[in-house]
Each structure stands twice: as structure tokens, then as C-alpha cells.
Queue: 2 jobs
Job 1
Amino acid sequence: MKIGVPKEIKKREFRVGMTPSSVREAVRLGHEVVVETNAGAGVDLTNDDYIEAGATIVERAEEAFEADLIVKVKEPQLPECARLTKGQTLFTYLHLAADKPQAEALMASGCTAIAYETVTGNHGGLPLLRPMSEVAGRMSVQVGAWALEASQGGRGVLLGGVPGVSAANVVILGGGVSGFNAAQMAVGAHADVELFDVNLMRLEELDALFKNQVQTVFSNPTAVYEAITRADLVIGAVLVPGGKAPKLVTRDMLKDMKKGAVLVDIAIDQGGCFETSKPTTHDEPIYEVDGVVHYCVANMPGAVPRTSTFALNNVTLPHTLSIANNGAVEAMRRDPHLLNGLNVMDGKITYEAVARDLDLEYAPAESFL
Ligand SMILES: NC(=O)C1=CN([C@@H]2O[C@H](COP(=O)(O)OP(=O)(O)OC[C@H]3O[C@@H](n4cnc5c(N)ncnc54)[C@H](O)[C@@H]3O)[C@@H](O)[C@H]2O)C=CC1
Ligand SMILES: CC(=O)C(=O)O
Ligand SMILES: [Mg+2]
């Protein structure tokens, strides 16, 4: 099969869909890989590295998009969607529930689109989302600390305080992968940390892991309201797989928060869990509403692209190879976890939560096998 690896075009996105070692594996199995020139330049992977691994370098994105299987990182931007056609498979993050224009463009293309973020795993969870949630969770505390600086419009508090002055209060909404990683970093910074979830079993695990370093709290609207009014930094890390994020903090609540408090909305790629969130970029990551600083970058791991590219390839490569070896339909027939990644096929939305949240017709993924 011919595999195409375009250069990412989203603002300040330096990750690349396949590393040279991933390319080498695909070539060893008899596949042809075309890589757009300088696709890996942002992570110091040169054209020569790819050529040495067996890839062909192409000058234009269109040529990488002519392949049978396109392997990317970020959701396709509209000009990229326009390049896709029936018979092609796209394997990347999609986050469709928050992006109707993209969903409609992928439907119109006729392509088969498999979303990293809904592929499941033998041990539960979302293994192709996991490494990027680890990165974003860890980053959320460092960007939150930066946004709390007075020069960014923040409250001017240091996460850990100093002897004689209290630490900052950090509230983390969602105790899954990103929330857990955020809590690890916040505890490491000596902040005062509260971690919310609606899954009691998960709260029990977190309580056992963190012991008295973190307060675990069952998430309900009253508890969340009370917590955010005390908080210096609130990190939104909730997820309903495939679906739109629930809005846990309304605009009305902001007036009761501390002036200069910071909201970091990791869940922005699924629409965000704060009513006042809107996607931002690494160029202009923050804005203020009612005295509260918002950080809503939808591709946080793009800021640490080397860590992120390698972490992502570790988990995507087995599926990339299975699709290349078997064709997308047979690969999904063999692996129900990969089938769970199918979001669009033959012009239909095949993931129920996406169809529901975008009010589009739903056709079960199984019906395409
Ligand atoms: N902005 C960015 O660059 C990135 C964003 N993400 C996004 O971060 C979000 C979280 O991802 P993960 O941590 O991997 O998800 P996860 O599934 O591991 O954890 C989500 C947690 O939220 C909890 N939850 C659901 N509803 C809740 C509610 N109402 N109150 C409190 N907790 C609730 C769930 O029980 C679960 O424990 C996703 O939207 C993901 O796409 C991930 C990586 C990068
Ligand atoms: C998960 C995601 O959206 C990202 O890594 O950019
Ligand atoms: Mg406390």
C-alpha cells in the first residue's frame, strides 16, 4: 500500500505522523511511503533521515495526499479535507464533535476516516489518546503557572507559595489520564490540589495513589462551583469519549472567581468544559473574560513536538501497519478496537456520540464491514 505523510499545516504544529523508524517498518513490510518535504523538520528529522529509512520525499502536499493511507497528527484543515477522496483512508486525530465543518467536509470527501482519539484498547481506555493526554496534563500545570504570572494578567501567585505564604489552590476537573498527570505535576510544584471526577471507582484509585497529597472530590455542580471560587488555577480535563465536553463552568460563575484566576481548558479539542472557552493557538494562547485568564490551546502537545511525535508513534504504528497490510476494512474486521476508531465512511458518520452532538445521521461502523 502507498502511505502518505504530509507536513502538518495547523498553526505551530511541529509534530509529524510517522518517524523514520516507523517508515522503516512499513517499507520492510513492502509498503511505499511518501513524505512531504521537511515534514519532520520541526522535530529535527531531516529529509535524509526519511530517505535513509526508505521513504520518497515529495515536494508538494498534494502528492502525499495521493496515497491510499494518509497518516497525520492533527485533524485535517479544510484545504486538506478537500484533497481526500473515496477509497482513501485517513488515520489521525479528528475531534469531530467540536467541528461540524470538518465532519461535513470528510463526509463529502467519501474517505474512510479513523480517529486516533476513539480507538480503544485491550486494557480499556483510549490508548492512542493516552500519550498526548499525558503530555497535555503535564503541560497544563506549567502553562497554568505561567498564566498566573502578573505580566500575563494572572493573579500573581506562585504555585507552591513560599514558607510563610500559602500555596496556590489548583482544581482539576476530570481525573483520567490528563487529570492524573496534571495532579502529579501540581503536587510536584507543592500546590494545594483538588481532583474531581464523576467516576467513584476512579476517585478511589486516585485517593490510594496520591494519599493525602490530593483531595479527591465527587464532581457535581455545587461542588465544582464552590471549588472554582476558591481556586487560583482550574484545569479542565474531562472527557465523554467522542462527544462534546460537558460545560462545567458557566460564564455566570466567573464573576465569583478570584480576579486573575486561570482556567486551562485541556478539553477544548472536544469543545471545552468552560462555557467561555474558545480555541486558541500557541501564538496567542490566552485571553481574559471577566477578569479570569483562559488558556485554550487545542494542540498543546504541538509545543513539545519531539516528545509528542515519538510518544504518538509508539502507539499508532501497530495500527498503521495493520491498515497497510490488510486494507482498512479488513483491519477493522480483525480488530474491534480499531473499528471503534472509525468516525466517517462512505459519507456517513459512524460514531454515535459524534452524530448525536452534531445532529447528523448515524450509520453504525459495523454496517460497513
Ligand atoms: N488540548 C490538547 O492539546 C489536548 C487535549 N486532550 C483532551 O483532553 C481531554 C481529556 O482526555 P483524557 O484525560 O485522556 O480523558 P480520560 O477519559 O482519561 O479522562 C476523562 C475523565 O473525565 C471524567 N469526567 C467525565 N465527565 C465528568 C464530569 N462531569 N466531572 C468530572 N469528571 C468527569 C471521566 O470520568 C474521566 O475519568 C479530552 O478531550 C482530550 O481530547 C488530550 C490531549 C491534548
Ligand atoms: C489529542 C490532541 O488533540 C493533540 O494531541 O493535539
Ligand atoms: Mg485543599
Job 2
Amino acid sequence: MPELEEMALPTSLTSVGSLSPLEVEEILRSRVLLDVCIALLVFICPRALPLVGNLLSLNTAEPWLSYTEWGKKYGDLLYVRLLGQNFIILNSENIARKLLDQRSSIYSDRPVIPTNTLFGVDFSTVMLRYGDEWRLHRKLFHQALRPESDLRYREVYFTGAQRLLVNILEAPAYFDTHLKDFVASNVMALAYGYEVEMRDDPIVRTVRELVDLLTKALSPERTAALAAFPFLQHLPDWFPGAGFKRQAAYSRNAPPSIVADCLSQIDETVDYDTQEFAIKAVAATAFIAGYETSSSLLHSFILAMLLYPEVQTKAQAEIDRVIGTEKLPSFDDRLSLPYIDAVLHELLRWSPVTPLGIPHATTTDDVCNGYYIPKGALVIINVWAMSRNKMKFDDTEDFKPERFMTEDGKLVNDPATTSDPIFGLGRRICPGRFAAEAFLWMAIVSILSMFRITKAKDAYSKEIPVERKFTTGISVHPVDFPCWFISRSAGRERLIRQL
Ligand code: HEM
């Protein structure tokens, strides 16, 4: 494989970790890093396609298991040069905070990834280069999704959770679809103030298919198929709300949403078109960025409850003790339910949905701990390794909410759930984190209050084993598994059936 020679480190750079071609190959076994690389690789050098084929044939099952090893083997900062592109991999939270938080003016760009343009999603906040357009997007997100705005959406999350429970009661085998619909309804409400139908909403279905396609698009083997879907370049027009034009007055009476908030704040005297395009883009991004990540986490939550029934029992005991067995939990109960918050925090740690974050890029050269980091380098946040930091957490593969509880049963406050590296770092940190953690909490507490989740049984009444397995890609999702939902409260069932 002669091309691998090119991956060796150039002597002009002070290498962070000096890797032999074999070691580089080992790192490339990670399918997720590969996903990032391939998109760039095909862009930088189309002739590299045969190499892409070779790399894809590597054994890539459970790639993140090796992410924890990188730090141990190569240190906190790892440098890989691949076909002319510099990759810096941050393996520890300390170093990541030092660079991305404290030197955020250098580390807040994004690499140019050709799939975005091909799929017509280059408008998305997530992949915008560091500059004025991105700043305008962040301002709009901040107006709509800052922590104080959360209160306005509580009713939406609560109603959505009740619908989720009804859907699971009626068609438990499709729980994954119901979880996705729950997330979709929240994100649609956040973005557009749009109230989705109880089940199988046509707009949600269309957008869900699109997001599925986009998630797959980031996987390298699909790159070749991109040119086949030029219609996706018209993506923003597919979204509800895209038809609005100069309706700022109308929006003031509309339900709260990103679009309504932004329209009501629009400055009609300056550059209206730029602002209007940014509002559409921000709303569409909210769906793309929030949907897959949040529904994957909820699917992982069900998996964790199956694999750790003792955690489920403890959480349900807390709910029944605090609110009784007849009432449905609401946000007013949150402070009295610390263990449920610990479950949420542990879920984020146990199942980092984007194990290598979303790559940042440097805007100028930098030096860190005596190492030279070049301008334009791709900066990968090894979230997986951070969540497996043995200095911070013991038994890292176990689901143990107790690690976020004090001995006297209080929640450990520091750090807050929303500052978990799963939401990224620095200026590009996820602006949807406050909303996401609120509606995830609502879903978790509602499901636990209503159902005992157990392993499914086969025709011989034998439990069907469940394993913790995830798909690969830039964001990961648990592989489908069967399970049963057993109603635990006739009183609660009556309440939600009144809907
Ligand atoms: C649990 C669910 C979620 C997770 C785990 C998550 C995770 C992330 C991560 C890792 C990033 C990249 C941060 C970085 O570059 O350092 C990100 C960016 C982003 N997320 Fe989220 N996210 C979630 C939910 C949401 C929701 C619900 C929304 C919107 C309503 C949202 C909107 C965004 C946007 C707009 C960006 C791009 C920020 C930028 O590039 O400046 N996310 N998210």
C-alpha cells in the first residue's frame, strides 16, 4: 500500500505522536475517523479512491474501543498526517478545554467537507466556516435556545412525552419509531412552532427520511452516490416555515419557536435577505442537528435499562416515592428526583453519540506544550476517550448513575450535564444542549414512571439476549433489539389514555 508512505510525518513539523505507517493503519481502523477522512480525502485527491477502497476493507467493528487506547499509547495530543491533511486528535478533556475553550479564536473553524455542498446542506450552521454568517446563526440560536427560553417549551415536551407513552402502550414493538417521533415533534416545535400529528406525521416522515439519508451520506462508502441526488440541494424549501416571507408581524402571534423568535427580532432596515436566509438555515439546522443525536440517546437509554435492571428499579422507586404511583411526572418534580438526573448524566457519558465529536479546524498556527499545530489542521475531539477517563470514572463500561450522586443522595453539581464534552467545546459548543437535555429528561422520567422495560421472550418463554452494539458513522445509534414494555400503573395509564 504505497500511499500509506504519504501518511508518515513530515520532518518539518514537530510531531505530537510519531506514527509508523502501521500505526496509522491501526488508527484508521476506526470507522468514524475514517468517515471524516474519506470525505476530505476524496475532495483533496480524487485519485485516492483505490486507497479508500483498501481502508474500507479494514476490520472496523466497534472502532471506539480503540479510541480509549489512543491516549494511553500516544498521549493527550495525537498528530496524524494523511495525504497532505493534518489531523490533531485531542484525547483528554484538559487539553481539549485548554485549546478549544481558552484559545477559541484559533480553534473554532470547520473543515470544508464536500458532501455538504453535494447534499445541499452547506447552509447548515454545523458546517459553516468561522465568520460573519456563522456568527449571525449563533446569535439567532442564542436568542431562541438560551437556558431561560427553556421554560416556554416545557408544555410542549410534557405533551409530547404523554403522546410517546400512548404510542408505546399501543404499539410497543415500534418503540424506536415512537422515540424518534417524540424527538421530531420537539425539534419541530422548537424550530417552527409546528405541532406534529400524534403518529406518522407526513412532514416528520419526509424530514426523517432526509436525515437518514444525510447521516448515511457522511459514511464514506456512500460518497460515490452523492451526485445521484442533486434534488437535495433544494433542501431548505422542503422544510415547513420555508415559505415565510416578510411575515414578522404574523410571527409575533405564533407559538414560540426559533423562526418566530428570530422574525420578531429581525432588523428590517438592514440586509433583510441575509437575515431571512439565516433564519431558514438555522431552523433547518435545528432539525438536522437535534434529531439523530437525541433519538439515538433515547434508544441507548432503553438499552441501558434492559442491561442494568437494578438502575431501573432504583429510578422507579425514586419516582414512586416522590410523586406516588398515580400522577405523571412534570418538570416541577425535577429537583426532587436527583437520581433521574444522574441517569441522564450517565447516559451521556456511557453512550457518546458522536464519539469523535464534530471536527473543528484551526484558523492560524499554534503551539501547545511545545508542539506545533499548523493552520488549517482538523481538530478531532476524542469524546469517547474523555468519557472513559479512568482518573475520573471507575468501571467505565458499566452504567452507574451513582457516580453522579453524593453519598447523601444529592446530585453532584459540578460539572453540569450541559457542559459534558458530548455537546462539544469552545465557541462551537452545541446551542441546542439546554433544549435537548430538558426533553431527554422528560422522556426518561415519563417512560420510567409508566413502564417496566424487560427483555423480550421467544416462543419458548426464553429471554432474548440483548447486546450493547452500535452502528458506525459520524453519529452512532444502537443496533435494533427487541424488548417489552410492561405498564406499571393503571392510574397513569388512565391519565394518558384521556389524551
Ligand atoms: C442530545 C442531543 C445532542 C447532542 C449530543 C448534540 C451534540 C452536538 C455536538 C457534539 C456538536 C458539535 C460541537 C463542537 O463542534 O464542538 C453540536 C453542534 C450543534 N448542535 Fe447539537 N447536539 C444535540 C442536540 C441538538 C439540538 C436539539 C439542537 C437544536 C435544536 C442542536 C443544534 C446544534 C447546532 C446548530 C450545532 C452547530 C454549532 C456550531 O457549529 O456552531 N443540537 N451538537
